[in-house]
């Protein structure tokens, strides 16, 4: 996932937060306009649909990134069930440190055991949850990487 420039968060997360902010602004603006005229509801609906379409594009990129992350998570998971005795002796691994690190990181893998394609659907009404979950995935991935680097 590519790092953003303003907050240091990945671009997808920044884009989702931006869409949420614009959706919230459009709600307030649309409500004020609705009080003055019923015609503006059509405008508000079209803006809402436009934001959902933009969210869909962001989520497509996010899902591609999560798919790439799955390869790493699968490797960590496979290392957690690998026996240390296989790599002892004339091993290329220093005292099985990689497997030990993977075992320490393995409890964090449970957070990724959901179908991302069905969870990350482009719905503005669910955007708070999507932003929270993606941010959580990022933080947990950073924790796993930190454990594996040690």
From TrEMBL:
Protein name (database record): Corrinoid adenosyltransferase
Organism classification: Eukaryota, Metazoa, Chordata, Craniata, Vertebrata
């Amino acid at each position: 996932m590519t790092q953003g420039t303003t907050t240091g968060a990945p671009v997808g997360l920044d884009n989702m937060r931006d869409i949420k902010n614009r959706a919230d602004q459009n709600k307030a603006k649309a409500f004020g306009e609705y009080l003055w005229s019923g015609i503006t509801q059509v405008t508000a609906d079209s803006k809402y649909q436009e934001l959902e379409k933009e969210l869909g594009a962001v989520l497509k990129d996010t899902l591609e990134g999560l798919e790439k992350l799955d390869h790493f998570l699968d490797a960590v998971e496979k290392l957690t069930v690998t026996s240390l005795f296989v790599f002892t002796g004339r091993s290329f691994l220093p005292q099985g440190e990689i497997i030990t690190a993977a075992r320490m990181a393995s409890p964090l893998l449970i957070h990724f055991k959901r179908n991302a394609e069905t969870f990350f659907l482009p719905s503005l009404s669910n955007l708070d949850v999507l932003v929270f979950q993606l941010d959580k995935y990022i933080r947990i991935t950073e924790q796993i990487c930190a454990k594996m680097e040690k």
